[in-house]
Design goal:
Length: 265
């Protein structure tokens, strides 16, 4: 066989391999573990993925990023992980659980101070949290909830942490923070802006945390090492970081990463 015939055969085999991989991915079920704040846009992205890949299915597992990280470390089934901070991704990378070259930054968010629209306590700024009639401030548990970690950073930077420690009520996720505030079980809370927007009938945004008061809110996504559905996992990630995915996220109030792209980190 001549060299150009061998070369032609090689390229033909490569093309067939890609086609078979795409066909296999089309009818695959994948599990996506994602930060709870991504629920609405990811469900829409999931529908788009299933439409583009007939016969496929996306199963979502939404929870606090730290909890999802622990689940994955414990062997829970997951093909894709999307977190609301780098901390959880770094931990999974250190444990050798991320698929190389699949990790990407894809979005951002803001931290805001919220209160119930029918709240009896008047709060107009972060400094008002020191007032004696503000009894409880709800935030996510900083150890497992990224929004809680950013909230702690904000309060420390603003010089409020020591004054407010006795008022803090820790929640297991951002939705629980909003539940506490809506039911007036907490006078105020700190969550992502996109979460507050979902409940704007019951909750009001009092103030945005200064960008300089906390580390940048950065959402990341990656495929899990050992997934049996690598092609499908990468296809889902591709939609998230595409223009279509960015447009969906933007509609829900997320900030866009400057240049969403796969990274070998």
């Amino acid at each position: 066989m001549k060299w150009f015939e061998r070369l032609l055969l090689f390229f033909l085999c490569c093309m067939l391999a890609v086609l078979f991989a795409e066909e296999a991915a089309a009818g695959t079920e994948i599990t996506v573990s994602a930060a709870l704040s991504l629920k609405a846009p990811f469900e829409e992205i999931g529908r788009s993925y299933e439409k583009k890949h007939p016969g496929s299915k996306v199963v979502f597992n939404f929870a606090a990023s730290g909890l999802l990280q622990k689940q994955i470390e414990a062997g829970a089934p997951a093909d894709v992980f999307a977190s609301a901070s780098s901390k959880e991704m770094d931990a999974l990378k250190a444990a050798g659980l991320l698929l190389e070259t699949s990790r990407a930054d894809f979005s951002g968010n803001k931290i805001v101070l919220i209160a119930a629209k029918n709240a009896s306590v008047r709060i107009s700024s972060f400094s008002d949290l020191k007032k004696s009639d503000v009894v409880r401030l709800a935030i996510g548990n900083p150890a497992t909830v990224p929004a809680g970690k950013y909230a702690e950073e904000t309060l420390r930077t603003l010089g409020l942490w020591n004054d407010l420690k006795s008022k803090l009520v820790y929640a297991e996720n951002v939705r629980q923070v909003m539940d506490y505030v809506e039911r007036n079980e907490a006078d105020a809370g700190m969550v992502f802006l996109t979460d507050a927007n979902v409940r704007d009938r019951e909750l009001k945004v009092i103030a945005e945390a200064p960008a300089s008061s906390h580390s940048p809110v950065k959402y990341e996504i990656a495929a899990i090492k050992g997934t049996k559905n690598e092609a499908a996992a990468r296809n889902f990630i591709s939609i998230v970081i595409s223009r279509e995915g960015s447009d969906i996220l933007r509609r829900y109030g997320f900030k866009m990463a400057p240049h969403p792209a796969l990274s070998p980190r």
